[in-house]
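Form 7-S
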Amino acid sequence: MTPRERRILIVAILSSFVAFLDGSIINVALPAISRELGGGLTLQQWVVDGYLLSLGALILVAGSLSDTFGRIRVLRVGLIWFGITSLACAVAPWGAALVVARILQGAAAALLVPSSLALITSTFRGPAQGRAIGAWTGWTGIAGIAGPILGGILVDTSSWRLVFAINVLPIVVTLVVLAGVREPARTGPAARIDVAGACLAVVGLGGPVFALIEQGRLGWGSPVVFLPLVIGLLSLAAFIWWEARAPHPMMPLGLFRARNFWAGNLATVGIYGALSLGFFIFAVYLQQVGGLSATSAGLAGIPATLMMLFFSTLFGGLAGRFGPRLFMTLGPIVAGSGFLLLTLAVPPVDVWRTVIPGIAVVGLGLAVTVAPLTGAVLGSIRPEQAGIGSAINNAVSRVAGLIMIALAGTIAGEQLGVAGFQRVLAVTASLMFAGALVSWLGIRTPKSVADAATPVAGEHTLNAASGVSRKPSNGRGPEICYSF
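Output:
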């Protein structure tokens, strides 16, 4: 790796790490926020979903902005805007102001994620690109689980407001490193921005999410709930219709013709919807019902982080040898079983006997699942489509989490208790099992991976990061074969 490549990889990881860390660090701070600002579970849902709403709705169009105005420029704007909105969250005087700041912060995060990945795909080629994307994916995944640990320490030792203010430090470091990176030369025409698609996506997501969160307070019969739901669903239908006809769609539907792409994204709905819902309720329950401190609730997630650190590379390599299907099936089953084990954590909560074993099993399941899932999705499309492919998969995962957290109040009830916690985890496990079933029925192992046990010298090269074997194609680009 050249010094320039190393610098670009560091910038890409740092900028995305900040965005994903902020998306997960907030969970353990929610009880402290509601104690100071009021609002109960509804405010807690909006603080999380406001961020996910703008991130999920804008992440695809942000990729077009990156291609149009330059990745470095968009990344720099996103970092600065993220820092400003983080400070706005830190000083928010009331709940509504915090929610607005979180929505604006999610929009900034949308600028960071696709720009950082596009920077990698335009810099690295061949196996080096797979390794770089693997490093990027691994660190952003770890950020999602490690965030509650840092958040708990900050909440207990100082204030929940530091959970947001702390973002300024890594942002400054990233901007300093970014200053030494020049904009890569554009290899094709600038992408056009799908303004209509972006507007339809925002309304299509925002309406149903608003209805799901507020129906617990206002009821489904209220026009304030019913009308946004109907308008949102109609906008989502219009979004799909428009993307199929738009000259420059923000979500090219043609990618979904690849079996592993659509099946992998469908599995992502269940798996990442479960993760968002499970970890959200886990952190809140341990504090509000279990009586643990924010730090203790965050530290309870350490076994999952360790499992990801120790075993993700191992299972990513095994998926490269044997294909992703088996691992994408077994992993969610293991993780779902771990969430069911966590239902035993009833007051007085015995962390070592009822929390640590369950969360460790969840982490093991994630280690088995995440790298093969990413490889299956990105390995099913052409290398030059990796940027938009990853953006779509990220959008799918964020939207799945957005919807499931919006449903948390409906599932748990107005006041979170043991019964509500157990219902939520039962739903979480069911989503994991659904992801496993979709993987088993939908994912196909690349034929060349199945044949890799007896390779002919010089005939195949295996990309362990994606689990796809690419045969030399005499200058016509890689050929990917799947066995059915």
